[in-house]
Amino acid sequence: MGRSKTDGGAGVRERILAAACELFAEQGYDATSVQQVVDRAGVTKGGLYHYFGAKEDLLVEMYRAIFSERLTALDAILAEGRDPEWTLRAIIEDIVVGTAAMRQESAAVSRELATMDSGRTQRLQADWRRYQEAVRGLIRQAQQDGVFSPVASPEVVSWSIFGVTNSLHTWFRPDGPKPAETIARELADFVLAGLKTPS
Amino acid sequence: MGRSKTDGGAGVRERILAAACELFAEQGYDATSVQQVVDRAGVTKGGLYHYFGAKEDLLVEMYRAIFSERLTALDAILAEGRDPEWTLRAIIEDIVVGTAAMRQESAAVSRELATMDSGRTQRLQADWRRYQEAVRGLIRQAQQDGVFSPVASPEVVSWSIFGVTNSLHTWFRPDGPKPAETIARELADFVLAGLKTPS
DNA sequence: CTGTCAATACCGACCAGTCGGTATGTTGAA
DNA sequence: TTCAACATACCGACTGGTCGGTATTGACAG
User: Fold this and answer.
1) How many angstroms separate the CA atoms of B111 and A118, rounded?
2) Orientation angle between helical segments A84-101 and A55-79, nearest 10 degrees
């Protein structure tokens, strides 16, 4: 359904999204024209506006793709009910590996995050705040319990973590010497070393 | 010189730059039209193009304003010739406080950093790489000397630091409860705690 | 102090081209 | 015939940038 006999095997909608993702990541959202998107996707503007109501919907779709995955992963990790050290490590490794796996989407979205608040994205932004608040709450509680050192506030620690992932697309290369899993482990080691209580 | 008797006391060129800075930070570079800039600055397009050769020059100017300050500060810190712990702390505190003091410029520029590589900015980007390489080299040397723990690679540590400052504009509020100096000290404490060798 | 003359600073109308979006047409399957 | 799935042609708004013109200033001569 929805497949013509001449397309490359992928649905038209998916091709459009993939093309938009590449172009937004390369040039930015505003600098990319709808015409460029349809050219790369091998369709026409009529086709794009058949599947998407507006150019912005392409961005919203990428936004959702990124955060829905991270949020379900977060819930799964929290549901384990393990100790703070294990939990924070799992969150960091998931967000690094998950973000690295969607470099282009995250590059496209992270740049426009500040601008996007057009009603359509408020639900998604609320989810994102919930994610950050969960991390901060975890750190805060563990510091109160004496499990983590109070060397820095939960805000600064969480900003360190999310700052890395927000700018991950600028320095991570999938064909580089270090796979995402290694970087994820290093970052988790580093953060947890900073939070370790002197014994 | 260059001042009419009706302006607010600031030079026209500075007013244009300030207006562009605000608008780029709010809406992004591409989403901001030259017309919006001149409207907010209280001049006309002819006036803007009298002082700037192209719209892009406004961005380049902000780029330079940010990095020239950071680079001279870096050189001054390195010239002290102190131990790695003191040096890294000084660098972190300078970059946090300095970036916070130029929130809007850094918001405007950081978003477009990936796209800007039009010859005009190559010199500036080379300087920026030099900055990062200085930090990484400092960490690498200290780790080899056993002063810093090898818990994470110099790359990951430096990305943690620069990731925070690159996304600082999204969460730092100058009228918030925490002044930039406090955040700077917390971040330095946190990073150095992670790098401390177990004694 | 006054008159002259460039140079600088700035204005506002105006391009040619591009933008996101739409209205209408065509095609093949059911 | 009917409907989804696209293609094509096109629109009005707006874009970055240009250009001829003018108001203001400073230097210098007398």
Assistant:
1) 19
2) 150
B58-195 placed in CATH 1.10.357.10: yes
Residue B187, chain A, CB below 8 Å: the answer is yes
d(C-alpha A21, C-alpha A112), whole Å: 13
For B24, the closest chain A residue by CA position comes to A115
Distance between CA atoms of residues A193 and B24, nearest Å: 38
Task: Kindly report, as residue ranges, where domains of CATH 1.10.357.10 are found in chain B.
Answer: 58-195
Query: What tens digit of pLDDT does each residue of B22-78 get?
Result: 999 999 999 999 999 999 999 999 999 999 999 999 999 999 999 999 999 999 999
The residue in chain A having the minimum alpha-carbon distance to the alpha carbon of residue B185 is A152
**In the CATH scheme, what architecture does the domain A56-195 have?**
Orthogonal Bundle (1.10)
Q: Which positions ≥6 away from B194 have C-beta within 8 Å?
A: A190, A191, A193, A194, B149, B151, B152, B157
CATH class of A12-51: mainly alpha
Mean pLDDT for chain A? 90
Q: CATH 1.10.10.60 in chain A, residues?
A: 12-51
| Closest approach of B183 to chain A, Cα-based (Å) | 7
